[in-house]
Specification:
Order of helices and strands: HH
Largest sheet: none
Distance between the termini: 14 Å
Strand content: under 5%
Number of helices: 2
Helix content: over 70%
Length: 119
């Protein structure tokens, strides 16, 4: 006599929910990383514009103020780059989790389809 494998459908639903949650978190992490990337790029553009304006005498600043403003923009850019790096690392980890849950879900569904005729 062959034993019929049992697949708890409520566990399958929980797995589907976990997969959807992980997938959504992956998307949010990616959006946050892109936002940090855009902020770092904006700092870089602001720093370049500041330098260009001072060099062309469109903006008059003494050297101390110019260096302080430039340093502030550089620090802000570095902070955004660190944040972007951390967020892309988080995104990669969440993406792996989402892929693993998706594959597990797929395998369980295929298993259930294959054994639905046995019941």
């Amino acid at each position: 006599m062959k034993a019929t494998p049992i697949l708890d459908l409520s566990r399958l639903d929980r797995l589907r929910d976990q997969y959807e949650t992980a997938k959504a978190a992956t998307g949010r992490a990616h959006e946050a990383a892109l936002d940090a990337h855009n902020k770092a790029s904006a700092c870089r553009a602001d720093r370049s514009a500041l330098q260009n304006n001072v060099e062309q005498n469109l903006l008059v600043m003494d050297t101390r103020d110019y260096r302080a403003s430039r340093r502030k923009l550089e620090e802000l850019e570095q902070e955004q780059v660190r944040e972007k790096t951390a967020l892309f690392e988080k995104h990669a980890a969440l993406s792996e989790k989402s892929k693993a849950l998706g594959q597990l879900l797929h395998n369980c569904v295929e298993f259930a389809k294959g054994h639905s005729n046995d019941r």
